[in-house]
Amino acid sequence: MPSPFKTAAIIGKSDAANLPQTLEQLTGALRRRGVAIHMDAATATAARSKPDATHALDKLGEGADICIVVGGDGTLLSCARRMAERKVPLVGVNLGRLGFLTDIPADNVAPAIEEVLDGEYTSESRTLLDAWVSRGGKRTFATTAMNDVVVSRGAVANMIELSVAIDGEFIYNLRADGLIVATPTGSTAYALSAGGPILHPALSAISLVPISPHTLSNRPVAIQSSAKIEITLLRGRDARANFDVQAHSVLEVDDVVTITASPHSAVILHPKAYRYFSMLRNKLHWNEENN
């Protein structure tokens, strides 16, 4: 049966020791199905079998029907932002540790990818966040995040003070080490370690999770994903806004970080047997019993 995917973009974690071996199995499965293979330069250098074409990362999604990410969740996060606007679905092959998003194990890559090529997969849309920093009414930085936007204190500074508004309504002033604004995808990342709730990916929701708040009544809050969130830095030295831990902007007092849901979603294809709560049980060790 012909595959619905004719061209695959492959992006690998270039410093992973087992990347060449995994790429060999992956490209073999794709070539057996007649799928054209495109890679970025770093991935192509690691591959034992050269691709049909090599492109710069920001051009790799052009003409691709599917993007296969070989690495960890961090690698997939950076790819998702590039592929979402072009509506290219992603498949994650795990070379990392936890692998909440890259759920195909490297030692099972060939049969799992063949199932996807045969149309045996489940598709899942993930919310992205558009965020920008304003100073004096002018934007100084803008980007997109898949996991979270974190406004936090610097490494040696005291706690910061923030003013938080949602859809123009003042919510609270927060004195804390920071505030995490997380998507359902990001709810199992930094937000989870800060005491935030796990949000199912199908929810149209965003969580606001304070980091070590001075007042314990400042609790995590879940809001609708259509909301516009504005965070103003009222006090604090060396504060910064962090986006998926892959980009950041240093903040000054009165800077405003604005966050909205992006009009583009990341689409992730999972093997047919994938179940969200089963994945959580395995990754978070909910199935372990204390003796």
TrEMBL record:
Assigned GO CC terms = cytoplasm
Keywords carried by this UniProt record: ATP-binding, Cytoplasm, Kinase, NAD, NADP, Nucleotide-binding, Transferase
The record's section on InterPro entries has: ATP-NAD_kinase_N, ATP-NAD_kinase_PpnK-typ_C, NAD/diacylglycerol_kinase_sf, NADK
**Catalytically driven reaction(s):** NAD(+) + ATP = ADP + NADP(+) + H(+)
Catalytic residue list: 73 (proton acceptor)
Q: What superkingdom does the record give?
A: Bacteria
User: Which Pfam families does the entry mention?
Assistant: NAD_kinase, NAD_kinase_C
GO MF terms listed in the record are:
ATP binding; metal ion binding; NAD binding; NAD+ kinase activity
Give binding positions for NAD(+).
73-74, 147-148, 175, 177, 188-193, 246
Q: Which GO terms describe its biological process?
A: NAD+ metabolic process; NADP+ biosynthetic process
Q: What's the EC number here?
A: 2.7.1.23
The cofactors it requires, by name, are: a divalent metal cation
**Top EC class, one word:** transferase
Q: In which compartments does the protein localize?
A: Cytoplasm
Q: Name the family.
A: Belongs to the NAD kinase family.
| Chain's role | Involved in the regulation of the intracellular balance of NAD and NADP, and is a key enzyme in the biosynthesis of NADP. Catalyzes specifically the phosphorylation on 2'-hydroxyl of the adenosine moiety of NAD to yield NADP.
- The name of this protein is NAD kinase
